[in-house]
Amino acid sequence: MKNILLLPGDGIGPEIMAEAEKVLHLLQEQAGLAVALDYADLGGCAVDASGEPYPEATRAKARAADAVLLACVGGPKWDNLPRAQRPETGLLAIRADLGLFANLRPAHVMDALIDRSALKAERVRGLDILIVRELTGGIYFGQPRGIETNAAGEREGYNTLRYSESEVRRIARVAFEAARGRQKRLCSIDKMNVLESSQLWRETVAAVAADYPDVALTHMLVDNAAMQLVRDPRQFDVIVTGNLFGDILSDEASMLTGSIGLLPSASLRDDGVGLFEPVHGSAPDIAGQGSANPYAMLLSLAMLLRHSLQEESLAWLLENAVKESISQGYRSADIVADGQQAYSTTAIGDAVCREMEAALARSV
User: Fold this and answer.
1) For this structure, is 247 an active site residue?
2) Active-site hit among 237, 247, 323, 330
3) Active-site annotation holds for 223
4) Which residue from 173, 245, 256, 293 has the least number of CB within 10 angstroms?
5) Is residue 36 helix, strand or coil?
6) What's the alpha-carbon Rg for the chain, to the nearest Å?
7) CB atoms within 10 A of CB 285
8) CB of 35 within 8 A of CB of 4?
9) pTM of the full predicted structure?
10) Which residues, 6 or more positions from 59, have their beta carbon under 8 angstroms from its beta carbon?
11) Which residues, other chains included, contact 80 with Cβ-Cβ below 8 Å and sequence gap of 6+?
């Protein structure tokens, strides 16, 4: 029996998490998935309940879980709180606490949604990129950091970008292994022409490449990479990069697929324990309206099934059900085309469950 911790979070989080729960219950009842579900607060809802974005009760449950499924956190309600109480601080804290150093963000263009991409169809047809982002180092965690008043009496903010060789080696190995299972092409993104931390990054990734002679390694500066993702995104297979650059480039890649509401992510450590969450935010402007796109949430659950539970066939079943539902026209407002009906969060979740039930029945 595996333990899964569900963190609905803020904004649209509870709405999209409810659709993931439907799928989990279906898999428990009809596919024999042996999991126990538990719940906790993270982010703004945790601040409201306990004053902390990552309270001790959540910490204890997260450490005991085999996998954590998170919807989303944050919103303007908490933007003016001290940094220690902001929802995003809780998100960074759980990643660091669980040692989740490897963030996998796939960007895949479905044929049924190629019309929603920000680029022309001929540039993105068949696009399938995996961005491997280092998640517990870099400028988001580096010390010293802060806001101080300098000798001239002016306030200045500062952050430190640090990477050690061991941090770079371990994320590079994750990326090389991923590339081995795909097209055997890896592009490492840095800014080595002006940053010493990136110079170390490039040298270390190049050294790790000696252990992967079957994978073709290239290097690219981050500003060029941002341009190339728009100019010719299909040149990439697997991308590996640091925390800040990965955060930005993966959001850019989301628009190639048609909507950020389609992108899942997995944050992993070496033993397969992970936190799985949509790339998108909490969308407080549409919270409670029943119009949120649950597809990224469901695809994040598929990544949980694959990476933490080693249930490859069930992960494929869910991913295929998502594709079939979209092909049948079950689109949320963010991906609907002119003249098409926008379906509710609940209706989309129901459609995915019907597809899964039908597939399971055929396999009996």
Assistant:
1) yes
2) 247
3) yes
4) 173
5) strand
6) 20
7) 10
8) yes
9) 0.90
10) 94, 97
11) none
